[in-house]
Structure formats: structure tokens, C-alpha cells
């Protein structure tokens, strides 16, 4: 199998990450997201979002790109979170793997790198939210021994999705 490499993203990667995000997000949520969200969360919207993210001075943030032969096949992002639902844990904010590259360990490897980073900045645990109904992702986090610790409704405005919160208080479980 061709080698997969993982590197930190920089501002010049913003639109490439955005295009990849839209592609995988739409593939994942086409039967779950409302039509308005599907349309609104386009390359332009995500391009602005990733440009802002990669220009931010939040030094708790890490954004990773997984590549095969220089082509993007996965992205992951994490940072500290002030959201009460995460109870001080570091948050996995994005994790997306190209459908053609699933089940090759890319999601697990990205998560391990992000968890290592969150531990290095002294976050007490790792958490994330996943949309109810995203069965493959829920199975993935369960397989990696994530604990379901809560639920919340995304405040929107684009999609008031119902979410499950997964947490790992022993971060070593994710790092292996
Ligand atoms: C969820 C996701 C990140 C998993 O990434 P991945 O690279 O395919 O996962 P890995 O290969 O690292 O899987 C590790 C283990 O998790 C489990 N797993 C992964 N996907 C699974 C699935 N669909 N069903 C059941 N178990 C699964 C398996 O045990 C797997 O090991 P195995 O293949 O040796 O059996 C990926 O499918 C994805 O990007 N989905 C679309 C976007 C998304 O939903 N992101 C999460 C938003 S919160």
C-alpha cells in the first residue's frame, strides 16, 4: 500500500482543506443534513472558515493533513474548548477521511496525533461531538473506546443538529 504521511497544515492549504471538507461532509451527511445546510456549507463558506482558522492566533490549535502521493486523503483539527459540554477537555473539532481511503487506519492515526498534541498542552482528556445518525463515525469512536458522556443540540444557525458527545479521559487510550 502507498505510504500515508501526516503533516501540519498552513494558511496556503486553506482552500484545499475546504474543498476536501465539503466533499467528505456532503458524502457523509447527504441523507442526514437539511437541504439548506447541504447547500450553504459550500466551498466558499468552508474556505472562509479554514482561512480564519489557519490565520488564528489560538496556539492550542492543531490542523493536520493526511496525504498519499501529495494528494489530500484526510484532515483533522483540535484545540482547547471553552464549551461547557466538553468540561475542560481538549476538543477534536474536525476529522474527515476520503471515502476511498477508509479503513486504512488514517482516522485512528489522525486522532492519535491530535490527542498527543492535546495532552502536550495539558488538556484533561479529549472529547468531540458527532451528529446522531452518523453510524459509521459512532461505531469508529466506540471501537476506539470513547465513552458517550452527553448529548447536545448544535445552536445553529445553519443546522440545529442533535449530537452525541464522546470523551476519553485517559488520553493514552487514543495514543496507543
Ligand atoms: C469516521 C472516520 C473518521 C473513520 O476513519 P477511518 O480512517 O476510516 O478509520 P480507521 O481505518 O482508522 O478505523 C479504525 C478502526 O475503527 C473501526 N471503524 C472504522 N470505521 C468503522 C465503521 N464504519 N464501522 C465500524 N467500525 C469502524 C474499525 O475497528 C477500524 O479498524 P479495522 O478497520 O482494523 O477494523 C471516517 O470514516 C470518516 O471520515 N467518516 C466521514 C466523516 C465523519 O463522519 N467524520 C467524523 C465526524 S465527527
Quick overview:
This protein is α+β, with helices and mostly antiparallel strands and 176 residues long.
Model description:
The chain is built from 6 helices and 7 strands, in the order βαααβββαβαββα. With 176 residues, the chain is of the alpha+beta class. It has one domain: Gcn5-related N-acetyltransferase (GNAT) (Aminopeptidase). Strands 1-2-3-4-5-7-6 form a 7-stranded mixed sheet, sandwiched between helices. β4, α4 and β5 form a beta-alpha-beta unit. 32% of the residues are buried. Coenzyme A binds next to α1, β4, α4, β5 and α5.
* Overall outline: globular
Overall structural domain count:
1
Uncertain stretches of 5 or more adjacent residues: none
Average pLDDT number: 96
> What is the share of helical residues?
25-40%
Which molecules are bound besides the chains? coenzyme A
State the strand order across the main sheet. 1-2-3-4-5-7-6
CATH class wording = Alpha Beta
What separation lies between the terminal Cα atoms? 22 Å
Oligomer: single chain
Helix and strand composition category: alpha+beta
**Helix count from the secondary structure assignment:** 6
